[in-house]
Structures are given as structure tokens and as C-alpha cells.
Amino acid sequence: MDAREREWMHDLRNAANAVGISVTLGRRLVADGDHVRALEALDRAEVALIRIRDLLRGSAHGSAEPPRES
Amino acid sequence: MPTADVSDLLIIDDDASFAESIAGLARTEGFAPRMATTVAQAREALRVGSDVLLLDIQLPDGSGIDLLAEIDPALHRRVAVITGYPTVETAARAVSGPVSDYFVKPFDPMSFVALLRESRRVSRNVEVPGAEPIPGVVAASAAMREPTRLARALAATEAALLLTGETGAGKDVFARAIHAMSGRSGAFVRLDCGSMSHAQLVERLFGSRRGEGQGASDVFAEASGGTLFLDEVPELPAALQSALLRRIENADELEHMDVRIIAATRLDPRVALGEGRLREDLYFRIAEVPIAIPPLRQRDEDVLLLARRFVDVFNLRYDLEKRLSPQSARALRRHPWPGNVRELRNAVHRAYLLAAGDELVMHLETTRMPPPLEMGDTLAFTLGTPWAEIERRMLIKALEHCGNDKTAAARLLGVSVRTVHNHLARMKQREHS
What we know:
The complex is a heterodimer.
Chain A: H1 3-32, H2 35-60
Helix pairs in contact in A: 1-2
Chain B: E1 7-12, H1 16-28, E2 31-36, H2 39-45, E3 52-56, E4 58-59, E5 62-63, H3 64-67, E6 79-83, H4 88-96, E7 99-104, H5 109-126, H6 145-154, E8 161-164, H7 171-182, E9 188-192, H8 198-206, H9 219-222, E10 227-231, H10 238-253, E11 260-265, H11 269-274, H12 280-286, E12 289-292, H13 300-318, E13 323-324, H14 326-334, H15 340-354, E14 359-360, H16 364-367, H17 387-401, H18 406-413, H19 417-432
Parallel strand pairs in B: 1-2, 1-3, 3-6, 6-7, 8-11, 8-12, 9-10, 10-11, 13-14
Antiparallel strand pairs in B: 4-5
Helix pairs in contact in B: 13-15, 17-18, 18-19
């Protein structure tokens, strides 16, 4: 895996992680009745999903490359 | 506001979205999170202990792996490494250090929650209930009641605080506790005015890019939305004190920067003002509320609590179950602790490492005996030696010890680099004459 692929994979892992943590947090905050913070958490999840979309679109258009299957 | 039941989480990660979410998740588990996004910020943040430290390997200005060697296991109870790009090498390096957990992104959020819960369970078993009135500060003595009350009451305000207290009394830990309780989302930035050259101070206080205006890379910009801790302010040269005052006022009134100032000095401010070491106008700006942190010798009840806390921390670190012997507890109470909490921690660590069995035996009187001969890093003086001669020999010894590094020698001696240079210049002048 070259440096660009490594960076792509790193960014993708980060964004996927942010989605998971933010959704878990959002669910807890909703359960606690803290809807303002829950929405903030869901906003962060949405932003991270957009990052994932852009990373995947970028790879489809050749501006970044996903790692090849090994 | 955090209470004594709140645990500390330090998150070192440059991914703001992830850090915010993990901080929120930790808050729901009763943790008070602090965040650092660069290696430089992390080095400052690591100076204050945590119950859990979450360290990302990939940071914008370096590798988190390099920070592992700088983590004091006595301060950070549980260290977890996270990475978005796992390799065998980083995993091997991580687990060879003080790391107990290794997460690969994306990880199951509940595995992180399990880590937090386990950490709190262990903490509750080793901590003295109610002995931590503000985060990171162990205190049950009457002498600490007023300073911790003031810290709690003023944390969320914009009041400029001046912390006074002897070297090692814990001014830095206190400042960080106030920042942690402040609710401010920006960074805690520390500037040690006593250990930097004039040029370094100018760069850190006023930015380095001439012609582009102030604030390009200065401590005010870094502390925006957070806290700027100015340690040993009277060590600043007079001209810089004046410029600092203007910088603080400009940041506030012209640049509308939201920077909370906490300053500190080991000197009595009245003496520093009287001797001209601290400008009066600067003093009134940075000392809206002075808070005096008492020396350890005035905190009788705290000595044993602190010592036990340190033993607990070392037990976790070394996975042992040592304890203080009854004789040691008595010795701890009798000792005057001129080096304050820092000296106590070092003494406990030394006794811990040297203890043959499960009981720590402290030989404090022995360690305080003056050395009979001058050797290694010790100096011996006969009563009546002129003060100037004591200073001269101390400076030479410190420079030898630090490989002629004047900044390190100044730090060792607790004076400014300027003071070291001035002494050296005077010594050379005397030799020529």
C-alpha cells in the first residue's frame, strides 16, 4: 500500500469511527432527554458520513485511490 | 462542574469530530475529558495526570508513539492507543510501553465504554473518597480549603488569577484544574517565563512573523477560547512585562480574543513588587484574584493522603500491591518537605522501587543528611561561605551537570536564563579584573 492509499484508508477509518461513536452518543443523549446535544452528535455523524461519501467518490473519480485487494 | 466522583480522560487526537464525540460519550460515563490535537499540545497536557489516556498514533506534527516514552505512568493510570492505520511495528511499540489497550479504528464504541467503566471501578477501589476537591488535587487539610473553594467558585468566570506558592507546591496542577472546571473548550497553554531566552519569549508572546501583525503563532492565538497559564511571570524582563501588559489588553479590547489568563509565581508578590521584579500595572492586570497555595508542611492531613495516592498509582503501574509501613507514615508526617508535593512523590517512588517486600520503608531523615563530600551532583559548603561564592559554585556545578546547556541549568536552579547569563558575565568580568 503506497502513501496515498494509506492516507485514504486512515481517513476512511477515522470517519467510520466518528460515525459509530457519534451515533452511540446520540442514542444515549436522546435516552437522557438531552435533545440539543443529541442533535449535535448526529450532526457530527452526518458530517463524518459526508467525509466517507467524498472519500469514496474521490476514489471513483481518480482523485484518491482505495487500497487494492490483497 | 466536575465533582470528586468525576474521573479524568485525556484525549490526544487530531480528528476533532471523533474527539468531540468520544468526549461526549465519556461525559455520559462520568468522565471530565480534556483534549489535545497536536504533539506539542499533548506534551503540555501530559503534565497533568489522568485516569484514562487515549492516544492517537497519527498526529499532524509527529507520531503519538514517540510520546509513549514521555508518559509518566505514575500520572496516567491507564493508557490506550488508537490508530487508523495499524501496523505490526506500531502495535509492538505500543504494547512495549505503558499501554494497556490498543484500539483500531473503527472500533466498537461499547468496547471503549467498557474500558471507561473498568477504569472507574479500579479508581474507586484505590481512591480516598472526598479527598479530591478539584480535579487532580488531593486535599483534605484545612489549609487547602480556601484555595480549592476559590478555584471552584472562580473557574467558570473570566477573572484573572494569580497563583502563588513555593516551588513544587502544585501551582501548575491547580491551574489545570481551574481550566478543567471552567467549561472552556479551547486549549490550556502554558508559558514558563523563567526557562526561555528573551528571543523565545518574544516569539511565544508576540508571534514570529514580522510584518504580518501579532498573533500568527503566539500563545494568545493558541489559547483562544481556552486558558493561558503564565508561569513565573516576575522572571520576565521589565521591558517584556510592559509589552505583555499591552498584549493582554490588545487581545482583550482590540482583537476581541477570548483568552483566560492564569499567572503564577513562587515569589511573594509584595516582595516582587517592592524589589521591582514585577511591574505594578501588570500585577493589577493579572492578579484580579490572588490564590495562595500553601506549602506541604502546612498541609499535615494531606501528606499521608498524597503518599497513599502515589502508592496506589505505582501499584497500578507496576501491577503490585505494596503499602506504606506504619513507621513510614510517621516519618512522612515529621518531614518538613521543602520540595513540597514534587519531593513527596519522588520520595515515595524511590521507596517503592527500593522496597524489598510489600511494605515501603521511608528513610527521610537519612536522605536529607548533607553529603560529607562534594561529588557527582552534590555540593558541600562550610558555614560562613560567602553567598556570592555559593552562587558561583552552584552555577558552575549546574552547568557541568547540564553539559553547559544554560537553559537546562537555569531550569535546574529555578532561575531565568537571563539570570544565568548575567552571573556568567559578572564572573568573567571579575576574572578579567
